[in-house]
Amino acid sequence: MAVLSNLSMATISSCLTFYSLSIIFLLTCLVSSSFGELQRFEHPIKEGGSLNFLVVGDWGRKGLYNQSHVAHQMGKIGEKLDIEFVISTGDNFYDNGLTSPNDPLFEESFMNIYTAPSLQKKWYNVLGNHDYRGNVEAQLSPILQQLDSRWVCLRSYVLDADIVDFFFVDTTPFVDKYFTEPGEHTYDWSATSPRKSYIAKHLQEVQTALKESNAKWKIVVAHHPIRTAGHHRDTEELIEQLLPILEEWENGIRNKWRRFKSVEW
Ligand SMILES: *[C@@H]1O[C@H](CO)[C@@H](O)[C@H](O)[C@H]1NC(C)=O
């Protein structure tokens, strides 16, 4: 994706309200029931069962392209909403991810930009296609967490925030064009090869995690949208491979209360 910084905010209590400018993720809200093999993080929420957080994607620009302005507004709304954390939907560092855990971009595009007090919370990240153009392991490195304890980044994982489970999905390896038409870019597929088995294992993990989730709300977070009216269009690979898993799970609990929704702003 090559859009500018996306920002959205979400308030979850008994029902879920989204106010948003732009975002790339799929929202799945359902009732069902623990976890498979995806690594799991827990984030406590406020007494009273409400949760506020911000979602941002396509951001790392050394403050340019209005990144600093968006960061400033995030600081203000983050304070107003008293957010618990920030979710990043990937393309964390333009144009080509990080070169190493010591890449100054981490400081220039993250640490020095999101300085507002309200943003000094955990940042739960996934990777975008631009991140795959760099050294992917750099973004996953514990060194970044030592530099800035807000940073949480894995290829895929589950975040359990009491009333909601977030499923972070690594969508870049699904998309054919990065393999067939890489152009002048090189992608770091080192840990996702062979591609077929990486994808199969990932889908199975998501499937298992969804089935075992007890949370009232379930939100799937990824860089690429499944459906969108945006200029990148639908992601066909996800319609074919990821969507059936979400629908299968939805069908499995058809007799219970359910809601399923895919959103792109
Ligand atoms: C920053 O935002 C302003 C106002 O929306 C816009 O006119 C300008 O083109 C943006 N700058 C960049 C570099 O995108």
Describe this structure in words.
This protein has one domain (44-252): 4-Layer Sandwich (Purple Acid Phosphatase, chain A, domain 2). Helix content is 27%, strand content 23%. The protein contains eight helices and twelve strands. β9 (157-161) and β10 form a beta hairpin. The protein is globular, with a radius of gyration of 17 Å. Mean pLDDT is 85; it is low at 1-36 and 254-265. The site of 2-acetamido-2-deoxy-beta-D-glucopyranose has 2 residues, from loops. 2-acetamido-2-deoxy-beta-D-glucopyranose binds next to loops. It catalyses: a phosphate monoester + H2O = an alcohol + phosphate. Pfam families: Metallophos. Keywords: Hydrolase, Iron, Membrane, Metal-binding, Signal, Transmembrane, Transmembrane helix. This is acid phosphatase.
Task: Detail the topology: elements first, then pairings.
Blueprint: E1 6-12, E2 16-20, E3 24-30, E4 40-42, E5 51-57, H1 67-81, E6 85-88, H2 105-111, E7 122-125, H3 136-140, H4 142-147, E8 151-153, E9 157-161, E10 164-168, H5 177-180, H6 195-212, E11 217-221, H7 236-241, H8 243-252, E12 258-264
Parallel strand pairs: 4-9, 5-6, 6-7, 7-8, 10-11
Antiparallel strand pairs: 1-2, 1-5, 3-11, 3-12, 9-10
The chain binds 2-acetamido-2-deoxy-beta-D-glucopyranose (NAG).
2-acetamido-2-deoxy-beta-D-glucopyranose binds next to loops.
